[in-house]
Amino acid sequence: MLNENKKRRSVRGTKTLLIIAAALTGLTAAVYFYFSVEPGPKDQPEASVSAPASEPAITDSADPAETADAVFADSAKWGDEEFCKTIHLMSHQKVASDLKWGAIKMTPERIEILQNLLDEKEAELKHASVYKEILDRWEKGDFSKAVEDHNQIWSLQNGTVGKATRLLTEQEEREYIMREALE
Question: Where is the composition biased (Low complexity) (predicted)?
């Protein structure tokens, strides 16, 4: 009888350990997938998956030069999604946040390109005034509201993770540009 009780407890203990191990494995997988996939707008397909050839390819690719070239390659189809995505990715070099996906180096030339595109597409854009306000400040070298700019665009994209918390210092910005190999 004593051996039988020990055997039952041993089997119960083994089952309990297996259940705990399975639960931890499932939880680990869920956390991994949650943080490895960029949240996108709920009602729109992700632009980074694969854009049709006729639409601008805005991605979060690992190669920043490829990303920047793709973003500005085809201006004919630009809309709110492209403006939001591009301004958002450019703002990453100016702000601190827990998580960032992708980046496009912010340059005076790129700001000018966006302003020209905005002038061309303004009537078609739902949030043209938001983009104009941000780009006008950036053109003047005023990044004092970059945190608010990032979060406003992030909000338009239905962002849930990666809210900007503060401006980067000049040193942090240089390090970010080097670390991300932005060109």
Answer: 46-57
**39 band by pLDDT with thresholds 50, 70 and 90:** very low
Residue 14 has pLDDT above 60, yes or no: yes
Per domain, the residue ranges of the chain are: 1-36, 64-179
Residues 90, 103: Cα–Cα separation, whole Å: 6
Label residue 52 by pLDDT band (50, 70, 90): very low
Q: At what angle do helices 64-73 and 108-121 cross, to 10 degrees?
A: 30
| Angstrom distance (rounded) from CA 85 to CA 101 | 11
Residue 45 has pLDDT above 80, yes or no: no
Cβ distance 131 to 124 under 8 Å?
A: no
Distance CA 134, CA 131 (A): 5
Q: How buried is 127 (Cβ within 10 angstroms: 0-12 exposed, 13-18 middle, 19+ buried)? A: middle
Measured torsion, CA atoms of residues 82, 53, 46, 71, in degrees rounded to the nearest 10: -30
pLDDT of 119 > 80? The answer is: yes
Cross-strand partners of 151: none
pTM beyond 0.85: the answer is no
Residue with tokens 């920047």: 68
Ordered alpha helix ranges (H), the chain: 2-36, 64-73, 80-91, 108-121, 128-139, 146-156, 170-179
